[in-house]
Write a structure and sequence with these properties.
alpha/beta, 8-stranded mixed β-sheet, about 30% helix, Rossmann fold, GMP Synthetase, Chain A, domain 3, 4-stranded antiparallel β-sheet
Length: about 450
């Protein structure tokens, strides 16, 4: 099924919202498969197009004939995009509406029962050079377990209508969309998220499932629209991930949605770690849940989180064997990987995140976890958003600073400093609070701490 395309005011081509059924998607995938018959198993096709149902069916259709899609953000700066395309070494690059139409115009060809693996995505680059996450082409039985895990965990079925509100060049939004179609459901892809437009479409189409990032939930909360309760209350599944969810946002969601529908999960481009029901979160505040089925979690003495995965969860970093070797290790429970995140496991196996190793601030020999400090300061009435990070300090090695977006009507950060003095240890207290209009984030809502650090006022 070919989507509609329009030129937006800023001159880029974007997808108009479209809906696709499982039957329509199956035909579209078979045409994509036909258009890729000249490629070999394991070849890569780069998809650099705006989000929409055509992108979903292009990804699924390629995977169902053993061609691996490399899904890239069309908004990536030209120089960086050129580097990624060169690194991916794709046999075919689809980077326009016309080329995407051609990809969907092949003669229908037979498809494997399920996609034979995962697309290749590049990590977000918040901690260094972006790396391709490569899982190769799986045997049918292994691929069946990969996609069966998603269906069993989230309960995808033919009565589902999934609405896509997160960028489809990231792994989780594609998994939810493709998983819904494989189960016989339908997918609505409205394009770039706008809370008012989302509510209007949701009232009209009545979606049953939603995957979102906390930043999008925060925008819905700020909109304070009475339709929100109707839309969220009707969902059978509201899953969120991609960044820590502030306590106030989580509780707002639980006030508007069926508690049984609300799930959080912790994962990365590389793989999935946990799933957490609302009931578990309420009994264990700030947990991200227990290990997903088929996985075990452990932490090193320094807090580094490791996760064993089934065979269908194996991956390597594209053309980076040294980095791959550092990421995996053998354990009594099987092969385990780490992405450098830090956390704690309680005696019941619930995981609590402390942040990334690269975010850790060591000040005067004391470990300070920015996420831990942020959770405290988010409770300050003057704070709308806050991000904590470390900067070099001649005396202490590093010191803690923070960037803050103040709530409307607040014109000074002094209440935050007072709040911090009353609730944080001296090492944890930000030594400077930089007021900003907004925090820089990735498209999945992760704060770019490096950018905040680099853009600090020189007088600090």
């Amino acid at each position: 099924m070919t989507g509609q395309w329009v030129a937006a005011a800023w001159g880029r081509i974007v997808a108009v919202h479209t809906m696709i059924t499982a039957e329509q998607a199956e035909l579209a995938q078979s045409r994509v498969a036909g258009a890729l018959q000249h490629l070999r198993r394991g070849d890569r096709v780069a998809l650099v197009v705006p989000p929409g149902t055509d992108l979903v069916t292009a990804v699924a259709g390629a995977l169902r004939v053993g061609v691996v899609p490399v899904v890239l953000d069309p908004g990536t700066p030209a120089a960086e995009l050129a580097d990624l395309l060169a690194d991916a070494d794709a046999a075919l690059v689809v980077d326009s509406a016309e080329k995407l139409d051609e990809l969907h115009a092949g003669d229908p060809a037979p498809l494997a029962e399920v996609p034979l693996g995962r697309p290749m995505h590049y990590t977000s680059g918040t901690t260094g050079r972006r790396k391709g996450v490569w899982s190769g082409v799986l045997a049918v039985e292994t691929a069946r377990r990969l996609w069966g895990e998603e269906r069993e965990l989230w309960g995808f079925g033919p009565d589902d209508l999934h609405v896509v509100v997160s960028p489809l060049y990231h792994s989780a939004p594609l998994r939810f969309a493709i998983g819904t179609l494989l189960a016989g459901g339908s997918v609505l892809a409205p394009g770039r998220f706008d809370p008012e437009r989302f509510l209007a479409l949701a009232v009209e189409h009545r979606p049953t499932t939603l995957f979102t990032a906390p930043a999008q939930l925060q925008r819905l909360r700020e909109l304070d629209d009475p339709r929100t309760a109707e839309v969220l209350g009707r969902l059978r599944l509201l899953a969120h991930a991609g960044a820590p969810c502030p306590d106030v946002v989580k509780r707002w969601v639980l006030d508007h949605a069926d508690h049984k529908a609300v799930w959080e999960f912790y994962g990365s481009t590389e793989g999935q770690f946990t799933a957490c029901s609302a009931a578990d979160w309420e009994r264990h505040p700030n947990t991200v849940g227990k290990a997903r089925p088929g996985r075990t979690l452990s932490t090193d003495p320094d807090g580094t989180i490791w996760c064993t995965v089934p065979e269908h969860g194996y991956f390597e970093y594209w053309r980076a064997p040294d980095k791959t070797a550092q990421t995996w290790r053998d354990t009594p429970h099987g092969r385990a990987f780490s992405v450098g995140d830090l956390g704690r496991l309680d005696e019941e196996g619930y995981l609590y995140l402390d942040g990334r190793r690269d975010d850790l601030v060591i000040t005067g020999g004391v470990n300070v976890y920015p996420l831990e400090v942020e959770r405290v300061l988010e409770q300050c009435p003057a704070v709308h958003e806050i991000a904590v990070y470390g900067v070099d300090d001649e005396r202490w090695g590093q010191r803690v600073e923070a960037a803050v977006v103040l709530r409307p009507g607040v014109d000074t950060s002094e209440p935050i400093a007072t709040f911090a003095r009353e609730r944080l240890t001296p090492a944890q207290r930000p030594k400077a609070l930089h007021v900003r209009d907004a925090l820089p984030r990735t498209s999945t809502g992760k704060v770019l701490r490096g950018e905040l650090r680099a853009s600090r006022p020189e007088s600090s």
